Amino acid sequence: MSGEGGASGAGGPDEVFDVIVVGAGVAGLTAAAATARGGARTLLLDRLGVGGQVSTVENVANAPGFDEPIAGYDLGVELLEVAESAGAEVALDEVEAIEAAGPAAIDEAVVNGGGFVVRAAARSLGARAIVIATGSTRRALGLVGEAELEGRGISHCASCDGPFFRERRVVVVGGGDSAYDEALVLAEHAADVLVVHTGPEPTARATAVENLRARPNARELPNATVTAVRGTERVESVTISRHDTGQEVDQAADGLFVYIGLQPNSRPIAGLVDLDRDGRVVVDAGLQTSRQGAFAAGDVRSGTAAMLAESATDGESAAASALEFLRAPR
């Protein structure tokens, strides 16, 4: 994987590819491998590295193609090797915008009637087709001081930060699979793990709930919401509002781990393709967006269940549709 230097202007692209895949999570890595394998000159772009959300997961038990659990970071590296072996080019760059472009803006012989310009921080790139696999990020609680304490006690990755909370007190917010899986990781390190969720019962799968309830240092608080976080240099406490009693309780805490859903990373394609009311990309059965030649895969698309196996399937499907689009007569 290479970084790119220099700056791009507002003119035409510096280089043209058959397919540019934006986002190197499971969907993007799978799509890049498939389009490259299909003979398309493919570039995979990501601003940080490979793996996406899965890179923060300590053990992935349902990774497609793997019989044994694998660390999320290692899964990203494995999929990167597959993509590069297939011939995909990979680069680190921040994608700022994706624009539709006619042949005059790129190259009529290459684009043959249309295409896209991907404007990144380091350069502008042309593509005959694009796969949007920008994924999503964890939603924040929206509390005063939350942004300032991010990385100073507030986290979204137990496997990354759990060891820093050895013998300390942490609060986990969320009632789904992610919250309970990550709380179980934290229970291996922290002295006290409190899981706060809004419903009367968690929505996490039964085995995850049972495993956490078996830990003596873990407990749950249903029908409750974290309404405030306090701390100067680091998180020191949170306020929890009880829905059933109306009470507000101050809870001492050294860490706050938030798992309340995902926010799609659709900013670079705002105005290019149709989005649903949640900001996800609207796609058809072939994962084509409202704009011909643009496809979406993984957590960023509408109707996603945000499951690992689905992201891998999405990558394959979007790649197949992109290759079909490239081969169609214009």
TrEMBL record:
Keywords in alphabetical order: Disulfide bond, FAD, Flavoprotein, Oxidoreductase, Redox-active center
Claim: Oxidoreductase is one of the keywords in the record: yes
Gene3D superfamilies to which the protein is assigned, alphabetical: FAD/NAD(P)-binding domain (3.50.50.60)
Occurrences of domain FAD/NAD(P)-binding (ranges): 17-312
InterPro entries tied to this protein: FAD/NAD-bd_sf, FAD/NAD-binding_dom, Ferredoxin-NADP_redctase_2, Pyr_nucl-diS_OxRdtase_2_AS
Catalytic activity: [thioredoxin]-dithiol + NADP(+) = [thioredoxin]-disulfide + NADPH + H(+)
The UniProt record lists the keyword 4Fe-4S: no
GO molecular function annotation: thioredoxin-disulfide reductase (NADPH) activity
Transmembrane domains' residue ranges: none
PROSITE patterns in the cross-refs: PYRIDINE_REDOX_2
Name this polypeptide is given: NAD(P)-binding protein
